[in-house]
Design a protein that fits this description.
- The protein has about 180 residues and is of the alpha/beta class.
- It has one domain: Pyruvate-ferredoxin Oxidoreductase, domain 3.
- It contains six helices and seven strands, in the order βαβββαββααααβ.
- It has a seven-stranded mixed sheet.
- Helix 2 links the parallel strand 4 and strand 5.
- Helix 4 crosses helix 6 and helix 5 runs antiparallel to helix 6.
Amino acid sequence: MRFEFRLSGQGGQGVILAAIVLAEAAIIDGLNATQTQSYGPESRGGASKAEVVLSDEEIDYPKVMNPDAVLVLTQEAHDRYGRRVQPGALLVADEDHVEGPWPEGVKILRAPIARMAVESTGRALTTNMVALGLLAGAAHVVSQAAVEQALRARVPRGTEEMNLKALRLGIDTARLSTYKVV
């Protein structure tokens, strides 16, 4: 089993932290994981991408070749990373910030991710955890318990409960959502 995630947004949205938490959750669940990242020259505001490869075997190539699940939080991220998605893959998009166009044959889960974060925790900084919850809840590759354990270890002290609330909102939303296949 090899499962590839690509998380993208703009610098400052926390996609790299979300990818790190996802990779650590996989390790907790007994999988092998690699995590890579890239972002524009601006630390905030430029395009940001992080990739996670999970496998139950040794990972011989650490980069994503054909993502099974892609997160796009901004239109720029979608234009760069969301259009080259293989048929059958999962595309999670922030419906308030990404308008398409959508690749053919993908399963699309659209939700107001940033708005959900602000409404549930009062902080836009938890957008990444809502998004991680949507990915984890929809992909079913890592357990919720492992994601929560990894999150507790990685988020700044004192923000664990706020971030867990955002994560759980994403997971619950994914469980209740229907996917549109285009």
